Amino acid sequence: MEKTNDGRRNFLIGAAAGGAVVAGAALVREATQEPAAGQTVADGAHDEHGMAHDAELGAFFNAADAATVAAMAERIMPGAPNMPGATDANVLNYIDLALAGAYADRQDFYRRGVGQLDAFSQERFSARFVALDDAQQDEILLALEDGSATGFDYPGPQDFFAMLRTHTMEGMFADPVYGGNKGFAGWRLVGFPGAHPAFSPADLASSEAFAGDSVIGLKTTAPARRG
After folding, report:
1. Residues 6 or more apart whose Cβ sits within 8 Å of residue 183
2. Which of 169, 116, 166 has its CA nearest to residue 143?
3. Residues 200, 151: Cα–Cα separation, whole Å
């Protein structure tokens, strides 16, 4: 199972390092805007699935759906010692905030997709997805990816898997101002230096990893707002 995790993680890291995801997500919320009170699961207490405790609920997901999405994201981008995964990067928080904002048109897509996923999981293993072991969860996700999962109408299994994988990658590698990539976990994983205000011509021409200041994001570099 560890070999499977390594292969999946290395493939996704390679895709991110190629620049397809690191550029950021297509969100419209201003980079300097803080989430509204009660609309984050980033800093509160969480259980083993990355789900916020009742004292601090998410912006869109209910507790059960949050646990399922967090578990799916972790199997898509699994963590390992010194190798952060989706849970470490708080991908759940990114998806939750996005569905409450810029991706609000995907809310029904997620509700129906998660429900159909759990129904298929119950049919296959007599348990919800979050209750399965890693190998069983991978089997379920593989069935989604290859389209063999049954009981799906809208979204189809492949569409649901593709959307979740895309949003997991965004949550891993977009600027932390959007709610994921906690502690620059994804950027540190691929050696991306972040939103520095200026790179020298030598920096831009170099094929070596940037050796300048520490990793910073949009919130750090944004000018103070007056008035």
Report:
1. 89, 176
2. 116
3. 55
- Model pLDDT for residues 106-155, shown as the tens digit of each residue: 999 999 999 999 999 999 999 999 999 999 999 999 999 999 999 999 99
Instruction: Judge contact between 66 and 96, C-beta under 8 A.
Output: yes
pLDDT at 57: 55
- 198 is written with which tokens? 């200026």
**What 3-state class would DSSP assign to 166?**
helix
Backbone region of residue 224 per phi and psi (left: phi > 0; alpha: psi in -120 to 50; beta: other values): beta
End-to-end CA gap in the chain: 55
Q: Considering just the CA atoms, what is the radius of gyration of the chain in Å?
A: 18
Average pLDDT, the chain: 77
Side chain identity at residue 97, one-letter code: L
Q: For the range 211-219, what are the long-range contacts, defined as Cβ-Cβ under 8 Å and sequence gap of 24 or more?
A: 215/184, 215/187, 215/188, 217/175, 217/176, 217/177, 217/181, 217/184, 218/31, 218/32, 218/175, 218/177, 219/31, 219/32, 219/175, 219/176, 219/177
> Which two three-digit tokens encode residue 83?
């190798």
pLDDT tens figures, 103-115:
999 999 999 999 9
**How far apart (Å, rounded) are the C-alpha atoms in residues 121 and 92?**
20
